[in-house]
Amino acid sequence: MTDTTQTGPVLAADGTPLKKSLARALRMQKLRALMLIAPLLLFVLITFLLPIADMLFRSVENNIVSDTLPNTVVALEDWDPNSGEAPGEEVFAALAVDLKAAAEAKTHTKVGTRLNYENPGISSLFRKAGRKVKKWDTEADGPFKEKFLEMDDAWGDIGVWQTIQTYSPKLTNGYFLNSVDLKKGNDGIEVRPENERIYIRLFIRTFIMSLIITGACIVLGYPVAWILANLPSRTANLLMILVLLPFWTSLLVRTSAWKVMLQQQGVINETLVWLGLVADDARLVMINNQFGTIVAMTHILLPFMILPMYSVMQTINPSYLRAAKSLGATNWTAFWRVYFPNSVPGIGAGSILVFILAIGYYITPELVGGTKGVFISNRIAFHISTSLNWGLAAALGTILLAVVLLLYWTYDKIVGIDNVKLG
Amino acid sequence: MTAPTGNDAFVEFERVQKSYDGETLVVKDLNLTMPKGEFLTMLGPSGSGKTTCLMMLAGFETATHGDIRLGGTSINNIPPHKRGIGMVFQNYALFPHMTIAENLSFPLEVRKMGKSEREEKVRRALDMVEMGAFGGRRPAQLSGGQQQRIALARALVFEPELVLMDEPLGALDKQLREKMQFEITHLAHRLGITVVYVTHDQTEALTMSDRVAVFNDGVIQQLAPPDVLYEEPANSFVAQFIGENNTLEGEVLEIKDGIAVVKLDDGELIDCKPVNVSKPGERTRVSIRPERVEYNKDRLQEGAHTLKAEVLEFIYMGDIFRTRLRVAGNDEFIIKTRNAPDQVRLQPGQQIEIGWLPEDCRALDA
Amino acid sequence: MKLSKLSVLVATTALCAPAAFAEEMANEMTLVSWGGAYQASQVKAYVEPYLEMNPGLKVIWDESSAEATAKMRAMAEAGNITWDLVDAVASDAMRMCDEGLIEEIDHDAVLAPAPDGTPPSEDFGELLVSDCFVPQIVYSTTFGYRTDLVGDTPPTSVCDVFDLEKYPGKRALQKRPIDNMEWALYCDGVAKDEIYDVLSTPEGVDRALAKLDTIKDQVVWWTAGAETPQLLADGEVVMGSTFNGRLFSAIAEQGQPIGMLWDMQSFDLDGWVVPAGLPADRKARVMDFLKFATDTQRLADQAKYISYGPARKSSAPLVGKHAELGIDMAPHMPTDPANATNVHVYDYEWWADNRDDLDAKFQAWLAK
Fold first, then answer.
1. Who has the most CB within 10 Å: A132, A231, B170, B208?
2. Which residue of A255, A372, A388 is the best one to mutate when testing the C interface, meaning the one whose CB has the most C CBs within 10 A?
3. In 10 A of CB B198, how many CB atoms?
4. Which parts of the sequence belong to the ABC transporter domain (chain B) (predicted)?
5. How far apart are CA C99 and CA A21, in angstroms?
6. C110 touches chain A (CB under 8 A)
7. Which CATH number does the domain housing residue B282 bear?
8. Structural domain harbouring B313
């Protein structure tokens, strides 16, 4: 009855609305909490988020062409790439001005390298041209078209000009197209020729093999985690050291150890031949292929599966199993209907951990993967450190990141992320 | 000496021993026979072997020696899931990933019962514990008392003849615990099931049980109905463990006509009922319940031995008065008196004389 | 009194300072190299002698040459160059030069002339493949084979690598198109001087890959130079390509049953590059060291410790014996006339243009 008469907000003792004074009290608390995490937040921002943002941006950034060849880019706007003819004198004159400035600033080879990713040969074209154009007088030495063609008739190649025109804008989707085996043609997006398609195949392989590795980790890790969780803590701690042992050995050493084990003249093959199970000339191929990668990576990632499973299993009350049995369930039913569902959060956490680590792995696949056992990350590493095509590496990395987030989201939708426990 | 077997022997322990480490016995030579429909409580301090006995009966522990029989057949080699015994656990052990209805349905499912029959039984079991509206919830959404009811319903839903309960009310607050004690006993009697109940709470044991087995040190010290246990403890452990108890130590002077004259250590003489003593000269521990001690001379019987006592402390407890005395050198001698209008309130420092009926004073083992 | 003396001192120091610093050389220098035996040969041949001449100098080593290009780019972007002199292979040097990451060097002005006065540009000759690059050594990528696994007729031609009937078993090849594509075309019947012309056409690429296809199942692909000697030593492969210095050490220093094939070996260069934009004092130090470390005697000395040929023509006659084994080093040099009868000359310019394109095709072929 009284509620109907009171329409205004509830007031605090000093007359301010209760909601407002509550918000004020909470804001102080939040501010204090924020101050406490501020150093970490700043650290994460600087060392993690900014580099990721930078990487994401690199995958579309393409300032170099318009910055290095500003006049050429403008002059090329009027040129019809489908005309079948190389651009006219004014474009070449603009190029001469741009190249002379670029050669003096030593940036002409940079833009050459950039365009060479799209059209092989441009790198040396620019390098050679820079050397010559440096000595030209851009006011008086015209006409330039002839001079360029005389220097290298590739300057008359329409393909070169099409490449320059296509990659004039400051932003490009070229790296992303490249990452999924497409390319920018004159008439829009084209599929790359069959003998250049690699990334889709590698993405699929990376995911399938990571799934297999995750599955192998579950199958091998579950019984271990179960034993650890059900042993007296003294023995469990001792066994835990064995589980953690791989963490204390260098990754390279462990991977090399697998080489020694698995290679054709290795320990396993020698033993099998000695036992007469395998003929000497039919030794098993267990390394430099997918099998080798799966074995080595399963071993390396197993602790990441066991630890979350173990910590979840430790919290499962042993009386659940007893209760199930007292209610008439056989050992298997009690396990499958009661224990297993309660251990799923551990499997989920371990699987997410192992899967995400697996798809980003590159050292182990590089060393034991041969040709069929390498991952997309090996290509990313290649483009970062060898080909220096950081734009492409960034695009590949961005796709990988996006797919991981997508999988995470799907997992959340299907299983629920609150069902993931790390301990 | 074999336990009697017959129609009334439903659960039997015969010469059962249990050892975990091969060096010490946790259960020493246990013999116990329970008729159908009995509510029996195993009571004892922790480590006394009562829970081990329950677990052996449930099948989660195997007896090192001896035979456990259910309905006349030995169940030593029958796995727990085939024993058909309902069990309520200390922490309820409700399956957290299942709803209440699924929890109850579980024992029926593993017995391959049809869906409609299952639903019917689950509904009835939930109604029985007045939780009919909670079938769709998860255990974590229920209070401790509600979870307790569900655990009970789950142990009963498949209609076992024997139900074991392992300190089922331990986690509840006092008020709720008392309420549940009555509910469980009523339910057990209504359904006519046989219950073995384990607790370390003697009040619980006394209020709920048909018979109580007091465990200590792996041995049943006394197996008797609650009133016998309280009023006629068989030895000083039971006397101490059940209810409040005053003890005085001394030596038996003579036993005559069912009365033992005991000379207390400070030289005074008292009359007692000999329980664990047989001949003069034996050391004995005399046990008297606080509410059986009388200090109003008018109410004492003619010729009864009395002892001098000094009032040390008077505690007002509402329904009763609790007075602490110094008696025969014992500073912890307690008497309890009803808060009646004519009741005297003793003052500290007051010198009084106390006495009791000889049958209320039991001369037990020292 | 005291005060005025001090202020005079401060004033004179301040006045002299700019002039003094221009001549000043930094007394710390970070060198980047490959580690292992190669870096050791550099230490012995010219870093230690240079340190004796410059007692105050401190040299810091960074064994990062394998990732030099990527790290150099990262440093340049961050604007914090911590390296002073970087050892790099010629193709990496060209890439860094194109990227503007390293200094152009006027070889005749910076480097020492030969003892007979020949200017460095002539003494190094065509080995000066880039304006930014000072070559130190000539190495070659060539094949080694297990002498005990090839029967009585050891391989004599690079095309024996493609002959699975005569030499069954696994082969180790580097996991990149460079060299492998050339060898494949050569053994498919393409004349040596036409290899790059053929490889410039899509059909030529297909042809090379088709040839490689014939042995693909039997190839173990390596990425680090140490792998092939190990694979040979383990008997995992019958033959495999690697750097000649690695094979020399497996044969001469470790006594492994390995033979070496001097046919169509691919010549390559390794040398110094100077990061662009060094402060004046550091640059002065580096140039001083560079002049010393690449003179005729120093390059000849290096060959005492490792079987790579000196990049100067004038050093060749000075090559002596191995510092510890005492064997004559000249016959183990890729530059020795007896070893260089049939040599594959690697085209830097062509690969700089086509590396990314061919690499994509090569990787796609590998993944198939």
1. B208
2. A388
3. 25
4. 11-242
5. 61
6. no
7. 2.40.50.100
8. 244-365
At a CB cut-off of 8 Å and minimum separation 6, what does B304 contact? Answer: B271, B355, B356, B357, B358
Task: Tell me the chain B residues in contact with residue A327 when contact means C-beta distances shorter than 8 Å.
Answer: 81, 86-87, 106-107, 110, 154-155, 158
DSSP code of residue A253: H
Which among A135, A139, A109, A134 has a CA at the least distance from the CA of A124?
A109
3+ Cβ–Cβ pairs closer than 8 Å linking C and B: no
- Of B149, B88, B159, the closest CA to residue B117 belongs to B159
- What does the pLDDT average to over A232-254? 86
CA distance B339 to chain A (A): 47
Question: pLDDT tens digits, residue range B118-165?
Answer: 999 999 999 988 899 999 999 999 998 899 999 999 999 999 999 999
Interface pTM (ipTM) of the complex? 0.85
Q: Please tell me whether residues A215 and A168 are part of one structural domain.
A: no
Question: How many residues are present in chain A?
Answer: 423
Listed residues A172, A188, A207: the one ending a domain: A172
**pLDDT (tens digit per residue) in C55-99:** 999 999 999 998 898 999 999 988 999 999 999 999 999 989 988
Of the candidates C113, C57, C59, C92, the residue with the CA atom closest to the CA atom of residue C273: C92
Structural contact between residues B287 and B356, judged by C-beta atoms closer than 8 angstroms: no
Residues A313 and A413 reside in one and the same domain: yes
Q: How many residues does chain C have?
A: 368
Say yes or no for a CB contact (<8 Å) between C70 and A388: yes
CATH label of the domain that carries residue C182: 3.40.190.10
Q: What is the pTM assigned to this prediction?
A: 0.83
Chain A residues with CB under 8 Å of a chain B CB are 317, 319-320, 322-331, 333-334, 337-338, 341-342
Q: Which residues contact B69 (CB under 8 A, 6 or more apart)?
A: B5, B9, B11, B12, B14, B75
| C101 and C159 co-located in one domain | no
Q: What is the mean pLDDT of residues C157-168?
A: 94
Domain around A220: 199-419
Checking if the pLDDT of A377 tops 60, the result is yes
Query: Is residue A285 scored above 80 in pLDDT?
Result: yes
Tokens read off for C155: 């391989």
**Amino acid (one-letter) located at B50:** K
Least confident of A11-20, A345-354, A399-408, C283-292: A11-20
Verify cis geometry, omega within 30 degrees of 0, for the bond prior to A143: yes
pLDDT in tens, chain B (366 residues): 334 444 568 999 999 999 998 889 999 989 999 999 999 999 999 889 999 999 999 999 999 999 999 998 999 999 999 999 999 998 899 999 999 999 999 999 999 999 999 999 999 999 988 899 999 999 999 998 899 999 999 999 999 999 999 999 988 888 888 889 999 999 999 999 999 999 999 899 999 999 999 999 999 999 999 999 998 898 989 998 998 889 999 999 888 888 888 989 888 888 888 888 888 888 999 999 998 888 877 777 776 778 889 999 999 998 999 999 999 888 899 999 888 888 888 889 999 888 888 888 898 987
- CA–CA distance, A199 with B94 (Å, rounded to integer): 50
Q: Tell me which residue range forms the domain holding C363.
A: 139-268+333-367
Task: Using CB atoms, pick whichever of B80, B96, B97 lies closest to residue A325.
Answer: B80
Query: How many distinct structural domains can be found in chain A?
Result: 2
| Category of A250 on φ-ψ map: left (φ > 0), alpha (ψ -120 to 50) or beta | beta
Nearest residue to B108 (alpha-carbon basis) of B125, B129, B92, B132: B125
Residue A3 placed within a domain: no
B95 vs A324: CB contact, 8 Å cut-off?
yes
CA distances from A340 to A226, A312, A346, A352, B96 (A): 10, 11, 10, 18, 12
Which CATH number belongs to the domain containing residue A235 in this structure? Answer: 1.10.3720.10
**H or E segment and range at residue C95:** helix C90-99
| Distances C36 to A256, B298, C63, C269 between C-alpha atoms, Å | 19, 110, 9, 18
